[in-house]
Structures
1.
Amino acid sequence: MSGVFYRSPGPDQERYVELGNVVKKKQVLALLETMKVFQSVKAPVAGKIIEITAENEIPLKDDDLMFVIEKA
Amino acid sequence: MSSKTLFSKILIANRGEIAHRVIRSCKEMGIHTVAVYSEADRESLHLSLADERVCIGPAVSSKSYLNMEIILQAAKETGADAIHPGYGYLSEREKFATLCEAQGLAFIGPTAANLKLAGDKLAAKKIAESAGVPVIPSSRGHVPTVEEAKVVCGEMGYPVMIKSAGGGGGRGIRICEDEETLVEEFPIARMEAGAAFGDATLYIEKFIAEPRHIEFQVLCDTLGHVAHLGERECTIQRRFQKLIEESPSPFVSPTLRREMGEAAMAVLKAADYVNAGTVEFLVDKNGAFYFMEINARIQVEHPVTELTTGIDLVKEQIRLAAGEPLGYSFDDLSIRGWAMECRINAEDPDRGFAPSPGTITHYRPPGGFGVRLDTHLYQGYELPIFYDSLMAKLVTHDLTRLGAVRVMKRALEEFQIEPIKTTIPLYLHVMDDPKFLKGDFHTGFIKRFVQEAADEDED
């Protein structure tokens, strides 16, 4: 899905995750806004975030990479 | 037609189909137009329709279409003498109307004071009450004990809804059919509210079962004249987003129309309202109606009123903003036939109405007798991900409701937009639904419908 990538639920709010965080499966990592509809981006697996490739508030295209997670 | 020029140049502070809509009326009135656009809308059709165009910044709406300073500057630089805000964006911002006035620009819409009132739902409700218009009965503030709840509910009558002051999204709501259920449910509701929202404050509202959403279009001039233009039936919606609208409503009798029309006008008179506005009501199955809110703008669904009254509402907005008198009332109009609108959205009804952006590689619009299409689409157009999913408004008109439905069905069948997902297949099902054909529906209609469609798929 294409959309604008957000790392926090609001401009003044804490980011969902940071580089190096250990996340659970289905944990919310970011938001994607497409045509005024927000959907949460959830971790497909449990593990450690070793790379964040998408930039905050920048639009992404279909199949663009957002995070790299090292599987636990 | 009047040869007098009301304004010499209007800036349209919007995009998409409504920008087209406004530019078209301006052209017919001999008024020059200025289109504004974000960097994501460089390929938008409204730019070529307008006489002048100004880029107002990046794709994100907060930096372009919601940027008051830059839009006002564009108006100044192009020498516009009025701004039409369309719907959404800056159309209901009190501050924007005030800034326009301060810069000597006419804001084509209600006054800043009108916008302030309409934006404050409690204040609007009070104005309606003061005008003798029924509002949905509710407790005055929070209800701390079961004993007090019993008194409140006894006064307003059952069924009632217990709501959590801190709640939202339907959570914490309990419906009570009678006093016995109330006594049972009240303590549970309090506990739930406390657990879910950290706030056990409850209030009570009368529950309107299977309601309809019916609104009245009203026009008001600066001299105090007010006229309603009949109702719009907007019951077919999903999560408070309207999908199908029609005028007249299959539910409204001439008597109810007179009562509701009077009520709508009374609310706007009490509010010293100016220009075009809509008064929304919730209507129960017995025809009791309750004021909900004032929509202080031109609405998406305005074409159904235009087709039945023959009145161009955007031209009326411009005329009224220039201080011209209204000049007619509802009884002077000859209401003709039936009009229906389907909002064609880039959404997938089979996947919870998920947005479906993309490039339109194949486009074939419908046409023919009784069809009006308000859209900014063209073949090769890329739907930006930054803006809402409304792509087109397909509006049909015929002498009868069934006739308008038949034209709609035929037009929906003609309409091809590929490869993105649209709401067209859903509307094709609706046009065949026996309950829809009978005009027998309430605000839960689509939910039931989508659910049924999903069940069929499972079989």
2.
Amino acid sequence: MPGSMRAFLWRLLRLARRSKSEASLDGELEFHLRMEIEENLSRGMGPEEARRHALIALGGLDQTKEACRETRGIKWLDEFRQDLSFGIRILKKKPGFAAMIVMVLALGIGANTALYSILNTIFFKPLPYPEAERLVLLGEAPPHQGQTGAVGRSSYQNFMDWGKHNQAFEDLTAYCSEELGVAGGGEPHRIRGDRVSDAFFKVFRIQPILGRTFVPGDFAPNRNPVAVLSYRYWQAAFRGRSDIVGQVIRIEGQTTTIVGVMPERFRSLAMEGGARFWIPLLPAARELRRDSNLFMVVGRLRPGITIERARNDMAQIARNLEDQYPGARRDYPPSLQKGWGVRIEGLHNYFVQKGTATETGLLMTAFGFLLLIVCANVANLLLAQGADRRKEIGVRIAMGAGRLRVVRQLMVESLLLALLGGAGGVLLANWMLPILLRLRAGANLFSEFGVDKFEIDGRILFFTLVISMASSVVFGIVPALTSSQVDPLGTFKSFGSGYSTGARRRRISNILVVSELALSLLLMVSGSFVMRSLYQLWNCNWGFPVENRLAMSLSLSQRNYAEGAKRKRFFEDLLSQVRALPGVRSAALMRSLPIMMQGAATGVSIERNQGPDHRGSVSIASSNSVSPDFWQTLGIPLKEGRCFTDQDTSRDVAVVSESMAREVWKGQDPIGKRIEVFRHWYTVVGVCGDVVNLGFARKPEYAVYVPSSFTFDTASLVLHTNGNPLDLVSPVREMIKRMDPDQPITALRSLEQAQVELGEPWEFLLVLLGSIAVAAVVVSAIGMYGVTSRTVAAQTREIGIRMALGASGGSVIALMVKHGVRLALFGIVLGTVAAVGAAEVLASQYWWLTTSQVPVIGLVALLLGAVALLACFLPARRASRIEPAITLRLE
Amino acid sequence: MTQPKSEVLQGTLDLLVLKTLETIGPMHGWGVSRRIQQVSDNALQLTQGTIYPALLRLEQRGWIAAEWGISDQNRKARFYSITKAGRKQLRDEKKSWERMMAIINRVLEGT
């Protein structure tokens, strides 16, 4: 044992026991001194002298105490070392047994270590900025939001005023991410860049590795456009060339000088997908409205200012600003015109909580269960081994070892096994993590978080050590207590017989097996439940078919297509030309592709009575503006009324989704009803089928479609093709290049590909859950096998007698299997009950989980039952081949 | 006559403590050290303090048990008593001591 470990244990022990034993020792020595002093006094010494002599006789108070302390500590350590070396000897004596336990433990601990290191990398590591705990995210919060939920965006004007009036922040910065067209450094492409206000790099406190960041002059009206590159973009597009500073690229058609490169660890905030470059933020006129909430705001708190202080401070400022600019939000619905606040959240906190809390919880629970199953299994194995060691333990107790001492010895063995298992777990995790990262699903998910490798660092090793030690208690304590309960006399009496292992021991072992099976079933059902639902989700039910559809996104540069008429002409040209391509059945333009409409939800007012200003209830719906061919091209069925025609482009008509029509107008005919979207009234002319609008894993929501005037900044183009949609990729590219050589195309792919991509993060979850479920089944099968083997071993003689009396092999197998089957049934019933409960909980979290799981549970129960039966059958068959003569001679 | 004082032989202190406790019954640390000094007619040079680590060690091995009680002078004191295991240990130690003495004597007297 390394010296540091020994010192650590020693200190731990002293901490735990110190105060009590020290007080006791003090009292004892005080008594001794008093007695001695009194005796000296009675001999005629003066009080001072009496005390001095007493101390001399004792040999010094502190010296005595120290001597006692040493005795106390070293004794424990000595015994621990004894236990340890004895434990090692025991394990060496049965290497196969030890190896099996270590392997099972390594599986459970390794899985948890791997998960922890993933979570650690994504969530628990502090953000890579100096004093990151002082960084907060700020956002304007609508009335009554308070300090919960998402942090919204803020208007530039308010941001500027916050900066002037607040006392809480050292600096505030506003930024927004956009896809911008870039020429220079390869093909023209659109990539994500951040427009940032002047304090941006100061707030994050990161220095560039090349060149400089922005200076005030970069924000002046007559400035020269400049950009700072991210490390990755610098490497990818410019091959990391060292003379990059001073080079010129074109961003949105504007000649821009590169002035700096940021270090690799400086990545844009995860929620924005990671910017490749940063350019100065010079707000356009429309961005200067006080009610245009467009910018993310990040602030650095002054040292010593709490987030609470900052919230109070900003609440006051928000109230003052509202008083100062009373009409700022007069274009909002009445309920949203007044009472806005500021939501402030710690940057790191926000990322940890954001979105993934449920998935993280789900995974942690699943992995925790696996470890529990493993512990139950190991406990069972140890229990069996304890039965074999009854004689050894009996001898030790007869020789005067206390029960506590025996328990401790057994616990030290457990600890030894757990530590070995933990070491194996670290190796396993180290081997698994790169594989997880290489999975396509994993890689995409992690690159979103800016993770390109997992490190097993000190924190993770500590975590592994802790869970190993905790496991050793969980799996070790019951076998240790049971095995140490040996009546030495009884042990000797039954020497050599190997009869019953004791009802108590067997009962505990049964409980362990049952809970193992129940937990496995729970894991398997939950896992397969998620898998089945995902499978269904992937394979249907977006509300439209995905075959033979090609989609792409086009964003027109604001510089070349400033006027609406120009944009209209481009898109009209695009549609007519693309329709003329061979193999295209129909084509449609829309503001956004339905499944990708994250964040497109908007308030829709429903007119209650006929009349100009009778807004009734407000619903939330996703709104989309689409070309007339939208339904035909995507294959969304029309349920009532009509689609749009070419004449509708300038008319105020709308098509709504089926669920909305049904629930808003409750049985009335929706055709002819009026709704208000974006302060504009439309008349409903048609009802179409529901589609999944807001991306994967969200309920289909109400949808409103309005005719497009073709003046999009950004639009999605969808083609319905005759054959493989991917055959049209190059013709479409060619065609658009002819129309405008600088026009980038993004997200060009078939809808089938889009569907797969959307499922990827879930695929990763699925892979993890699936492997956990499989591991759980394997482990509990081992458990079943072990229990039946033991039953067989314990009853060898009985079997021998039965067979000597003429029992057939089959009846012996049936007898042996019966016990196992009873346990399996019990475990399966218990697990089923738990699984039904768990499914309810899961279904309440994820709408896409199918609620009917009878087939899943039935299937899983059958599978698990079959595995359990096999695990029982193998040892039972061995029993049936017993030679009666041999077993009887075993005596 | 004054006997020459000798140091307590390493390892024999345990034996002396056990024997003392066996003879006089439950006793506190001060009493034990006093008793050993008296019985040996002050011949053993026993720093009284060394008795406490020894008592602790014996307690840890389970040869003696300790509990708080009230002394003759009505003071709270920790009383030690010999356990069953302690008596067995004492017998064993005594035997091996006697065997050792016999061997040493035989060697010294050159029989």
3.
Amino acid sequence: MTFAYEIPLLILLLVTAAGAIMVKDLMSAILLLGCYSFFLSLVWAWLGAVDVAFVEAVVGAGLATVLFLLTLFGTQPKDGRLRRPPPPMAAVIALPLLGVLLLYAAKDLPAFGDPTSPASVHIAPTYLKQSYQDTHTPNVVTSVLMDYRSLDTMVETVVIFTAGIACALILRRQST
Amino acid sequence: MIRPHDSIIVQSLGRFLVPVIQIFGLYVLFFGQYGPGGGFVGGVILGTSLLLTILIFGHSASRSQLAKKVLHGDGVGMLIYVGVGGLCLIGGGEFLNYANLDVPGLEVAARRSLGIVLTQIGVAVDVAVTAISIIFSLSAQEIIEDSINE
């Protein structure tokens, strides 16, 4: 494992995420969020999840940025508050504790790519072995999504359809 | 109201880039069985290319008519997807079990491959239409009213 480009990648991820929260101009915040999505897609690609990286790059960095920009054009482009209200005391105490707890729990997770982890001994080997004979589809991700788990994908499609319909119902009012 | 973009550079680049993006979207859609990609990403790319025509050439240009037509296609993608499931039912099996697609001359694995292609087209149509529809809802009242009143 080389550490030539992974550490800078993660640092950039943190910097863009923090910048998107901190910056006052909302347009800059949206563009920083797009950069964040792009770096996140590089991280996915580095972890070997190429399909997820593709979706993140196209949807997160492309389409979501456009949606945010269009929303911004309909609202106020600046954060008008002179000074941000300080975060509540409970959040200041609870969130670092939660972070410590998560780091503590992360120690028990199986190592990355561990072949004996619970996720990769249950049914994944069957998919990996049988996918090509069953469906003539070399990309196992596609065959799992569209064939073995087709009903789930159908309901996902229903969710997207519902989102479009709901946006149309709320936003396309006749302006009388 | 989205007017045509003034700059000649943007216009010429758009004339060149939009077909390239559309072909890339189709490639991603149908290459999803062999590499990264698939219906979702392909649909987003196709929808974005149609949006690009509107943003560059304005909504009354002849190039933008396809995108405005597509706006009426809400639910077509769902219909394709569920229709494939219904064809499996007609073929005598479970819902969305593509092995029961009644296509003569194809073995079971090839039928399932065909089912994957068809459902991916359904997902792509659904996602593309939804992307265009949401962005139209957010951006331009007049386009909606024009295309409804036509």
